[in-house]
Amino acid sequence: MSRRQVVGVAGEIAVGERKLVFVDGRSIVLFNLDGTIYALDNACPHNGAALASGQLEGCLLRCPAHGLRFDVRSGAMAGAGGLSVTTFAVAIVDSKLVVSLDQPGAPLSQARPCGAAT
């Protein structure tokens, strides 16, 4: 059984903005980076702090509790190794934003380094 949930409509999250949603008992933050929507678990893997209010620096999200930075596109902590935040695939289906919980943490498309030119 597919675990996909409609969480909004295409175009409702402006570039650089975010939206907090609740899906299947999980708190998930959606981010619009340069027109692409990414979804992350709202809990920092270090100590569970809510990431939704963290400062966004390009594609890096800073945890408001301890300052750890995570790449919104991959969930990986900035730098070598370290912790990572669970990510979720997002699709636009019939003009709706759909988050898939089928494979949390599944690798997303190859992301460029944060701040790299397109």
UniProtKB/TrEMBL annotation:
Transmembrane segments: none annotated. It comes from the Bacteria. It holds the Pfam family Rieske. Residues 4-99 form the Rieske domain. Keywords: 2Fe-2S, Iron, Iron-sulfur, Metal-binding. The keyword Iron-sulfur applies. This is Rieske 2Fe-2S domain-containing protein. It comes from Paraburkholderia sejongensis.
